[in-house]
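To whoever picks this up:

The parser on our side crashed when reading a file containing two proteins. I've narrowed it down to the boundary between the first structure block and the second sequence. Both blocks are reproduced below exactly, byte for byte. First block:
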Amino acid sequence: MTGGRALMGDQMIPHLLLTTTGSKSGQPRETPLACLPEDGGTFLVVGSNFGREHHPAWSGNLIKTPQATIRFQGRVIPVTAALLTDAAREQAWQTLTRFWPLYQGYTDRSGRELRVFRLSPDTR
């Protein structure tokens, strides 16, 4: 209804609307996600799936096709996703769990390492 300008929970944690390309269908798939905006215009997002056993579909879509679009505060931004690993993931994870401690609970509940992506604006 608001074109991504306002999502439920924005008062608690920032949100964006992510549009990926479906890994099987090739069709656009929209998902509202909590995010952590970073300096430099990038965003961190976590494939928590609310602590469920499996990774969310949108994270697999980004792995197959990292080019996506986000709506954040009413702006449409083309982005490229990078799945963070090793030291980059650990640094982002520390920041994310300080910002939103529930992520650690989701990790414990799911029994898996949650995927962390950095979405960087591109010039498409």
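<<boundary where parser fails>>
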Amino acid sequence: MAISIGIAKKDREQIGEQLSKLLADTYSLYLKTHSFHWNITGPHFNSLHTMFETQYTGLALAVDEVAERIRTLDLFAPGSYSQFGKLTSIKEEAGVPDWKDMVGQLVEGHEIAAHTSREVIKVADAAGDEGTVDMVTGRLKDHEKTAWMLRSLLK
């Protein structure tokens, strides 16, 4: 059955391209946060271990929400490391940095995801896709708040 939700195919495809970038950023940030949760050491171990767990749990839920929005638009969501690697703007961390660098990298990652979210909102808003605008506005607020909270640890 053909999709008929009031958004033209061309517009859905453009929105899907931007959502795929957000999905890749979100997944990359999830993976980095989870790795840092496992590998954190030092005097702030307990608080950062717990904070990172809360953050990666939220990101895991966000990955599903973004992917399902892509599917709602009748498009296929990327789902492999190679696809995400091509789409994300978040730098991979292959090592185990100290806690300050971990926090700094996560601040940067959330700020990148906020920028990506704003691009999705622009494209979706221009197409009259209120559903995507609403969902991504929530994601934007989460990324901005998390970046602020993490940035506050470094002052």
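After patching the parser it read the second block fine. Residues 61 and 68 are 11 Å apart (CA to CA). The chain has five helices and no strands.
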